[in-house]
From TrEMBL:
Lineage top rank: taxon: Bacteria
Record flagged with keyword S-adenosyl-L-methionine: no
Keywords: Signal
The protein, known as: T9SS type A sorting domain-containing protein
Domain Secretion system C-terminal sorting: 408-477
SUPFAM superfamilies given in the database record: Galactose-binding domain-like
Signal peptide start and end residues: 1-18
One of the Pfam families matching this protein, by short name: Flg_new_2
Keyword Signal: yes
Domain Bacterial repeat, first and last residues per copy: 169-237
Stored InterPro entries: Bacterial_rp_domain, Galactose-bd-like_sf, Secre_tail
Species this protein is from: Flavobacterium nackdongense
Length: 479
């Protein structure tokens, strides 16, 4: 098993791998593989998973063979991404003297070719086979076949496109959220080939520019493949988006994802019906989409409003998870006959700072103590919308408590506000509860500003010190 780290805002499109092997390392399961006894094969064989065996780390697929030709194979069969030659490599551990082979099947009209037998040494052995002339017009599968009875541990199975001598490769990356297409879409190219790359933004994102071996702001561009090239499509969140997720397009969750144990049973008319699994996490995840929290930002958010109809008899709470910090645990009604609206103050979460890129909504049964934070039944939840907004009355007490090096007095103030600071304050900006700048001062006297023109209400005062540090304070104006 090989551990792979995924970077949240960077998705790479590798030129070396096709999709026949979707689970190569068996980190937690044998998903993507199946057992087959083979033609006239003996009974008693099976596929299993080992959490203790593994080539470089625990986690391996297990083939228990009653004899030849019991096998494990990729499932389902799919067509290769590119036409050409492919190398299959794997690590196998079996009793010394037993044997295995690698086979590749490609249908229509159907043919199976394979390696010669590999004899096991009792430790982890490397096996490989190159399949030539694969096509994209027919489905194919990879097989590891036992040559004798025994138990075989299998790990690190890879199906790798072989680049012809003299050809070049084009690797595409994405920053933000979107996809890149290549025309023609090939595993490699002649040095004289020209490829058109097109950047396609996901919902609530826009294409910004290309970087790497390509520049420019046009979402479609051409690149000559006279050497190996790497291009990156950079996407940014749409500045016109108001952070309201209405799910009006059927099948489009607008960037939200679900835990594996919760699924969408229907999505029609802007209503998303969620189907949780009892005693498993039921979370909606917004990952990689920046939500601004700074109260001085042009667009900022400190409250989330969720409209749902809860069909569960026991799922009775909704919470938010920012990064790994859980907060805003809110009681919700059960067996709803109508849609209910829930508002959660996000300023109570200590991770609600900067641009938040990991946000989750979690449904749970508060009485499910054996599986805390999870529902205890599979009752459906119908989601109408999720909206992030700014409420100027939230989080102001926290602003005042977090900064103690500067004092404002009197507070509440009427006409004049005095500033006491150990270091020089070089500028003062005053914002109303909606985040609008209403007063700006260079504070040359470093001791007071005139606030007589401000109306009664709650304000945020942003003070910049001589060392360029910034502190925010709450101010109350009374007339």
């Amino acid at each position: 098993m090989k551990k792979i780290t995924l970077f949240l805002l960077m998705l790479s499109s590798s030129v070396g791998f096709a999709q026949l092997v979707t689970n190569s390392t068996f980190d937690t399961a044998t998903t993507g593989w199946a057992y087959n006894a083979g033609t006239a094969g003996p009974a008693g064989g099976s596929i299993g998973y080992s959490a203790t065996e593994g080539f470089t780390a625990p986690g391996a697929m297990v083939l228990v063979a009653g004899g030849s030709p019991n096998r494990v194979q990729t499932s389902p069969n799919v067509a290769p991404t590119f036409a050409g030659d492919y190398k299959i490599t794997a690590k196998v551990k079996g009793t010394a003297g037993t044997t295995v082979t690698i086979q590749v099947f490609q249908g229509a009209p159907g043919s199976t070719t394979g390696s010669s037998a590999f004899t096991m040494t009792g430790g982890w052995d490397a096996i490989e086979f190159t399949k030539t002339g694969m096509v994209t017009s027919a489905t194919a599968g990879v097989r590891i076949v036992a040559g004798s009875a025994g138990t075989f541990y299998i790990d690190d199975v890879y199906f790798t496109y072989q680049i012809p001598a003299g050809n070049t490769t084009l690797t595409t990356n994405v920053v933000g959220s979107g996809t890149v297409t290549k025309t023609p879409n090939q595993g490699s190219y002649l040095p004289t080939d020209m490829v058109t790359v097109s950047a396609i933004n996901n919902t609530h994102w826009i294409f910004s520019n290309w970087s790497g071996d390509l520049s420019g702001t046009s979402p479609s561009a051409n690149i000559t493949m006279n050497s190996n090239k790497t291009v990156t499509a950079n996407f940014v969140s749409d500045p016109s988006f108001d952070y309201s997720f209405d799910f009006l397009t059927d099948g489009n969750l607008e960037g939200w994802t679900l835990d594996p144990q919760i699924t969408v049973s229907t999505h029609t008319g802007g209503l998303v019906t969620l189907a949780p699994t009892a005693n498993q996490f039921a979370r909606l995840n917004l990952l990689g989409f920046p939500i601004p929290t700074d109260p001085m930002a042009a667009k900022k958010c400190n409250k989330v409003t969720v409209v749902i109809k809860n069909g569960s008899a026991t799922t009775n709470e909704l919470a938010v998870v920012v990064g790994t910090i859980v907060s805003g645990i809110t009681p919700i009604t059960t067996n709803d006959a109508a849609y209910q609206t829930y508002e959660i103050d996000l300023t109570k979460n200590t991770a609600w700072t900067g641009d938040v890129t990991s946000f989750k909504l979690r449904f749970a049964d508060s009485n499910n103590t054996a599986n805390a934070g999870k529902p205890s039944d599979s009752g459906s939840i119908i989601l109408d919308n999720i909206r992030f907004t700014y409420d100027g009355s939230l989080g102001l007490d926290a602003i005042s408590k977090n900064n103690n090096s500067i004092a404002l007095y009197p507070n509440p103030a009427k006409d004049v506000l005095n500033i006491s600071s150990a270091s020089k304050v070089i500028s003062v900006d005053v914002y109303d509860s909606t985040g609008r700048l209403v007063l700006k001062s260079d504070n040359k006297s470093n001791d007071q500003i005139n606030v007589s023109d401000l109306q009664s209400g709650i304000y945020i005062v942003r003070l910049k010190n001589a060392d360029n540090s910034i502190e925010d304070k709450k101010l109350v104006i009374t007339k």
